[in-house]
Write a structure and sequence with these properties.
Elements (H helix, E strand, L loop, with lengths): L4 E8 L9 E8 L2 E6 L9 E3 L4 E4 L1 E3 L5 H4 L13 E5 L12 H15 L11 H5 L9 E3 L2 E2 H9 L8 H16 L4 E5 L10 H12 L4 E5 L2 H4 L1 H15 L3 E3 L8 H10 L4 E5 L4 E4 L7 H4 L3 H8 L2 H14 L6 E5 L9 H7 L4 H11 L4 E6 L4 H11 L5 E3 L13 H16 L5 H8 L1 H6 L16 E4 L22 E4 L2 E5 L2 E2 L12
Parallel strand pairs: 1-4, 1-5, 6-7, 7-8, 9-10, 10-11, 11-12, 12-13, 13-17
Antiparallel strand pairs: 1-2, 2-3, 5-18, 14-16, 15-16, 18-19, 19-20, 20-21
Helix pairs in contact: 4-5, 5-6, 6-8, 12-14, 13-14, 16-17
């Protein structure tokens, strides 16, 4: 047999988390892993010397805001450079397909803090018209989820009330259409509009549809309305009532969640979670306002915020929240202030932090994003991260935001950081376990058969990295820096990173459940 590529002499980690690494050649042919073992020298079109390197399956990012950037732009290769070969669509339930332009554009405006200016006209009236954007243009595979925000907008606009029976029927039909299109998960952002307004009964009904297709449920929890402890209880109750496997977005193991997870394991709750393993998140500043201000369409929220009485109450709320100086301004519609800390920007215009933050929302038409640090001392934050990384229910996901002036470093460094910090330096996670948390585990959880594993016959999504030098370079101060120590990445048997540099190939496919 002649191979397109033979990766020679590397240590293979297969992504299952059950097998120790072993030395072998890996042959790629026609987009597949065609052989693993000793391959004669004469049987390849091209050899890659992987002696001293790890050869493993491509990583899978189950929570990443990359859809717009994958179609082109500065950060198109941000995930790929880390070895991420499959990226899920619709994190936090964000999405715009299946809507008219008049319905979709306000939803894009609402989510623009995570995606930037659209590269295409926001006009995807069908699911397939959206999914058709990616083949031939994306360096990574994409995998659809049900975008609950779009599903709810289609059924009832930005109405904050519970759905009427016909509206619920529309939501069920839209959820079914996405599952029929191969989505693996019903995905929600329960602090974001309009998903935040969903009743528990609505969630149960939609979960039952997803379960008909062996789908799972993933959510940014309802922290704002319920508080963190009750938000965790809500998703656990959803599993207990419906039986659907549940997954928690961007969480951590601390004094609250540690006991919750321990009890969930004892009770047989089918639950997992992901973490990007940094002590800060990124979202729009509107998220810090009381929910009664956030509720409704973007235009409705801005009009409410222009009222003097709303401003007075909101500033009292923000003052009590004690917004720290250090929060970085990551994105504004105008580009002004991006890269500055909140304290620097506020002082530059002689305002308090809360006044500046509130007025920025209005000045930027609601389109802005902040990097927000945990309100913990550094040593406590590190202790939490060190508890989180090795937890058996945790997989790695970036929650990356791209093509904005000052993004969170997780989008460029999350996966490489796992290998540097928690494997090589802290020795909290073995290499085999880390690769599993970034490949086989998410593939199993999200029903992605044949991905996330390196074995004969599997699609050739392959990463080659140096375990001694792989490292994240992106920092909070300088976040747009690719990692080191990952010289080769293949997607469907095609090199997209070659000798540390991106290629011109765009072999990403739309993957479907199962």
């Amino acid at each position: 047999m002649t191979f397109d590529f033979v990766i020679r002499g590397g240590e293979v980690i297969d992504g299952t988390g059950k097998t120790d690494r072993y030395r072998a050649d890996v042959g790629l042919r026609d987009g597949k892993v065609s052989a693993i073992g000793a391959i004669p020298d004469s049987n390849s079109a091209r050899d890659i010397d992987a002696r001293g390197y790890i050869v493993c399956p491509g990583f899978i990012d189950v929570h990443v805001h990359s859809e717009n950037s994958l179609l082109g732009g500065r950060d198109q290769m941000g995930g790929i450079r880390q070895g991420v070969t499959t990226q899920l669509l619709a994190p936090d339930g964000f999405g715009w397909a299946g809507l008219s332009p008049e319905e979709a554009q306000p939803l894009w405006n609402y989510t623009q803090f995570a995606y930037g200016e659209p590269r295409e006209e926001v006009n995807w009236p069908s699911i397939e018209s959206y999914l058709d954007l990616f083949p031939g243009r994306s360096p990574a595979n994409v995998y659809p989820q049900v975008p609950h925000c779009a599903v709810r907008v289609k059924a009832m606009g930005w109405d904050s009330g519970p759905p009427e029976s016909e509206q619920l029927r529309i939501m069920e039909a839209e959820t079914r259409a996405w599952m029929e299109a191969g989505a693996g998960c019903l995905c929600l952002g329960l602090d974001y509009q309009p998903s935040a307004n969903s009743s528990f009964e609505e969630l149960v009904a939609l979960c039952k549809v997803a379960m008909d297709y062996d789908g799972i449920y993933a959510a940014h929890l309802r922290y704002q309305i319920l508080g963190r402890e009750q938000a965790w209880q809500e998703i656990i109750n959803l599993n207990k009532i419906t039986g659907i496997p549940v997954h928690v977005s961007h969480e951590r193991v601390d004094g609250l969640t540690g006991p919750i997870l321990e009890q969930a394991i004892k009770d047989g709750v089918d639950i997992t979670f992901e973490s990007y393993l940094y002590p800060a998140g990124m979202t729009h500043i509107t998220m810090l306002l009381p929910m009664w201000i956030q509720t409704g369409s973007p235009d409705e929220v801005l009009e409410r915020m222009r009222q003097p009485d709303t401003r007075k109450k909101a500033l009292e709320h923000l003052r009590a929240a004690n917004i720290a100086d250090r929060q970085y301004i990551g994105y504004t519609k105008s580009g002004e202030f991006a890269g500055m800390t909140l304290g620097e920007a506020a002082r530059s215009v002689n305002k308090s932090n809360e006044e500046f933050a509130y007025d920025l929302v209005l000045d930027e038409d609601g389109i802005q994003a902040f990097i927000m640090f945990w309100p913990l001392p550094e040593e406590e934050s590190e202790a939490v991260l060190n508890q989180t990384a090795p937890h058996p229910l945790m997989m790695v996901a970036s929650d990356g935001v791209y093509d904005c002036p000052h993004p969170h470093p997780r989008g460029q460094g999350c996966f490489a950081q796992m290998l540097r910090k928690f494997v090589r330096e802290h020795k909290l996670v073995s290499l085999e376990e880390a690769v599993y948390k970034m490949s086989g585990f998410p593939a199993e959880r999200y029903r992605l058969k044949e991905r996330g594993i390196l074995r004969e016959g599997a699609p050739a999504d392959v990463v080659i990295f140096d375990p001694h030098t792989v490292a994240d370079k992106a920092t909070f101060e300088s976040p747009i820096q690719p990692p080191s120590g990952i010289p080769h990445v293949f997607v469907n048997g095609i090199p997209v990173i070659e000798n540390h540099e991106p290629t011109e190939h765009r072999p990403g496919q739309v993957l479907r459940r199962g």
